[in-house]
Amino acid sequence: MFGAGVYHGAGASEAMLCGRQEIYLVGGGNSAGQAALHFARYAAGVNMVVREDSLIVYMSEYLIDRIRAEPRVKVLLNTEVIALHGDRILQAITLRNNATGREWTAETSWLFLCLGGVPQTQWAAEAGVVCDSGGYIVTGSDLLKGDKPPESWVLDRKPYAMETSLPGVFAAGDVRAGSIKRCASAVGEGAWTIASVHRYLADG
Fold it and tell me: Closest Cα to residue 119, out of 149, 91, 103, 139?
């Protein structure tokens, strides 16, 4: 049902199509909180489905305060979506409160999944680039173990900032292990990477 009632993320275009309907949004992080506040401008109600027992686990306090102050946003803690209903398009979902065991079905044609991203780094692993257990690319000093680079490193120097385990290949932004996963941070890392690239080229 992806694209027919179920969506990854929460785009501005979908918000304007909700037409005063009840929507459900899965996720408890900053992206989910921002999306909920945006959708509240258009939808009859926004139901945030959160597995944790509190928003404070993954969400910034300023967003939590704004969500509490928005009457059209309802937070369903300890809750998961366990079933989807409909033929060609979404018509309803079944939810379960994991604290009480209660299950119920809610009619909706809008379910948005704001669960975080999965790095598309299969190519990197296949090329021999070192990635962490989540698939994020390891760079710079994080490659060092006991002050030594990985065995695949072929140069006498240590990796530059943002440089991967393959000399001259750099990674910045959300795909990089240890990054903050924010747009402004990605821009800063990109600028930092340019400096490292110039240093690499100057080495010849």
Answer: 139
Spatial distance between the Cα atoms of 202 and 70, rounded to a whole number of angstroms:
54
The structure's pTM equals 0.62
C-alpha distance across the termini of the chain, in Å: 52
The secondary structure of residue 13, as a DSSP letter, is: H
Q: Within its chain, how far is the Cα of 192 from the centroid?
A: 23
What is the SS3 assignment for 2? strand
Residue numbers in the chain where pLDDT is lower than 50? none
d(CA 49, CA 38): 16
- DSSP symbols for 44-70: SEEEEE-SSS-GGGTS-HHHHHHHHH-
pLDDT computed for residue 1 by the predictor: 61
Produce one character per residue of 133-169: b if its CB has 16 or more CB atoms within 10 Å, e if not.
Answer: eeebbbbbeebeeeeebeeebeeeeebbebbbbbbeb
